[in-house]
Task: structure prediction
Amino acid sequence: MTMIGDIAKLPASAADAAPARPQASVATAGDYAALMKPRVMSLVVFTALVGLVAAPGTIHPVLAFTALLCIAVGAGASGALNMWYDADIDALMSRTSARPVPRRRIAPGEALGFGLTLTGFSVVVLGLMVSWLAAALLAFTIFFYVVVYTMWLKRWTPQNIVIGGAAGAFPPVIGWAAATGSVSLEPVLLFLIVFFWTPPHFWVLALLRVDDYARAGVPMLPVVAGAAATRRQILVYSLLLLPVGALPWLMGYAGLAYGLSSLAAGVLMVALAWRVWTATDGPRATSAARRMFAYSILYLFALFAVLLIERVAGRLVGVSLAG
Result:
């Protein structure tokens, strides 16, 4: 009876006995590139480049390229791990529903493995080839973005962008550390610029996407406190950003061109924030928010670009005069 019972438990065919084959991935190279958030990565690399070039002394071009590559890969790792964890809410938001994980072009486990692999590569290579301080800062940045911001702050507090903005503010500090092996006041000022820029930049986007965030249950400020309170906070942070943006010039780390540019760009940022604050009806409010969101990207790029140009031009003139 035991043998008969065992035979009865056998599968009907060899095909039934074989373990199920995993389905082949339908992901393309473009899907994996999207997983790394290339637009965010480009801003990260640019601010890191400015931190690296602004640092005193020189760094070998190969080491500079390696540092920027590792920072870019680290940013991509953060994006991949963010998309892995946020797949549930990404699927509910029109802005993010087409991402590779909610569209099931990349399985969550694949996104997790990809992100962890990129993390290990970027941190280890940066440490071995350039600077262990820069590598430690990169590792902390990835941890802060993925664990502190994505897993905790984003889903639990309307101040998620304020605190979590620190993750996006670290790249110039990492670039500086890669070039010098240390951190000083100047890269901290660059950190503060990005830190104070982040809330008005993302809150104005949240005003445009408030229905998305509400549907996904993300406690962004306009969802929790309303549009009026959000518009007021955008104005407050824009006013704070005006002097913070000028700090490198006010403290003698940047020239007159940067000083005038930072003041002009900051005044325009405040003017656009004022329009967001005063425009309360539907079409005007939407138009004001869209204009400020587009300009906020230009603002940060312009400040860092002028600082970069100043520093490069100063070194070229210095070399020329020395010759």
In short: DSSP finds 16 helices and no strands in the chain. The two ends are 100 Å apart (CA to CA). The chain has two domains: 36-182, 184-323.
